[in-house]
Design a protein that fits this description.
Elements lengths: L5 H4 L34 E2 L6 E3 L14 H6 L34 H18 L3 H19 L4 H16 L8 H15 L6 H7 L14 H13 L10 H10 L7 H17 L8 H15 L6 H8 L3 H19 L1
Antiparallel strand pairs: 1-2
The structure holds a DNA duplex.
DNA sequence: CATTCGTGAAGACGAAT
DNA sequence: ATTCGATTTCACGAATG
């Protein structure tokens, strides 16, 4: 459905591309345009056609840190930074499985047995307690969901921090690990301004709707999210509908020409709507979808309501109910 | 014929009572 | 806890081109 990075990673090996001025600049497969470095939502976006290339971010920074001048010049390697999304924060030691020393020489029989014993106890220690296993399972789930939603590393780490805080506050009791993990990812995606809808999170989560639950979104994840935001004292702002535009437009599977024009028009439509306070009380997703359809009309494109509705998970009716008004306020604002 | 438009019923939600 | 109003969605049929 969405285009992922698999197509773009290949020409990293092309020597011609190594000359580019920034490590992030690449060329779009679709239109040959320059690809922007990540925008504020952590998504790689083509400058020309607006195609979302890849939502997962690669850290191009140095893996070393220097505390004294000679450290910096030597580029001494000191290991990766701490990671909140690994249950031991990435700090644990592992013993190599090869029975060789650092020079590659095979070990003596006596030393091999010693290493075997050490490996065994190291493993036992790492999986020691029940809570460690719980945390590992939970953070694996956070990682899985984040990756399925194309969220970038910073968002995933935020979700992981949230989960640890939930654990501290005993918020897991009565809920499944999967539910809390999904709720943490949902919360983090909003905090990091690359929001995913509850519906999107629910679709990739392993939280089943109850048999009696007819609502399209998971009440469980929503309740967990409310509880988390309340207990952790998070002041959650309403989602800015503009943050949905890139993703929604990319979701329209028909090839959209000149995406940036469409997106900026939709942005202006939303800005105009805010000035008349039209947006108050309306769902952000509905506003984003309606603004996109209004922009489609304003720029004379041949894309149907149905397609817009399907790409945004907003009903056709809701789009119908709003896009005229949005077009009107936009047009008034232009004069 | 495909698409858009309008409608009433029904559910969910927040604010007010 | 209940009521009320606004919003959203569904199912359907009518209007439009």
């Amino acid at each position: 459905m969405t285009r992922q990075s698999t197509e773009t990673t290949s020409h990293t090996h092309n020597p011609n591309e190594q000359q580019s001025d920034s490590p992030n600049s690449r060329v779009c497969d679709e239109c040959g345009g320059r690809i922007n470095s990540t925008d504020s939502h952590g998504e790689l976006i083509c400058n020309d056609c607006g195609l979302v290339i890849s939502e997962s971010e690669i850290d191009h920074g140095p893996e070393w840190r220097g505390f004294e001048t000679e450290d910096k010049t030597e580029h001494r390697r000191v290991g990766p930074p701490m990671r909140e999304d690994m249950y031991d924060k990435g700090l644990a030691t592992d013993i190599d499985w090869r029975d060789t020393d650092t020079n590659g020489n095979t070990l003596s029989e006596r030393n091999r047995q010693r290493m075997n014993r050490l490996r065994k106890w190291n493993k036992r220690y790492k999986k020691k307690s029940q809570s460690d296993r719980h945390l590992k399972k939970a953070l694996d789930e956070v990682r899985r969901i984040s990756s399925a939603l194309g969220l970038h590393t910073q968002t995933r780490e935020t979700a992981s921090v949230l989960y640890r805080q939930c654990l501290d506050k005993d918020l897991i009791k009565g809920r499944s690990i999967e539910t809390v993990a999904a709720a943490c990812v949902y919360t983090a995606s909003r905090q990091c301004e690359s929001p995913r809808t509850l519906e999107q999170v629910h679709r990739v989560s392993r939280v089943h709707t109850q048999q009696t639950d007819h609502s399209p979104v998971s009440t469980r994840i929503n309740r967990a999210y409310c509880k988390i935001a309340d207990e952790l004292g998070l002041a959650m702002e309403p989602v800015d509908p503009r943050n949905y535009l890139n993703r929604f437009v990319t979701n329209i599977d028909q090839h959209v020409t000149n995406q940036p024009e469409l997106i900026t028009t939709a942005q202006d439509v939303l800005t105009a709507a805010e000035e008349t306070q039209y947006h108050v009380g309306k769902a952000p997703t509905t506003l984003a979808a309606s603004a996109i359809y209004a922009a489609i009309r304003l720029t004379d494109r041949d894309i149907q309501q149905k397609e817009t509705a399907e790409a945004t998970d907003v009903s056709e009716v809701s789009i119908r109910n709003h896009y005229r008004k949005l077009m009107d306020t936009y047009n008034q604002n232009q004069q």
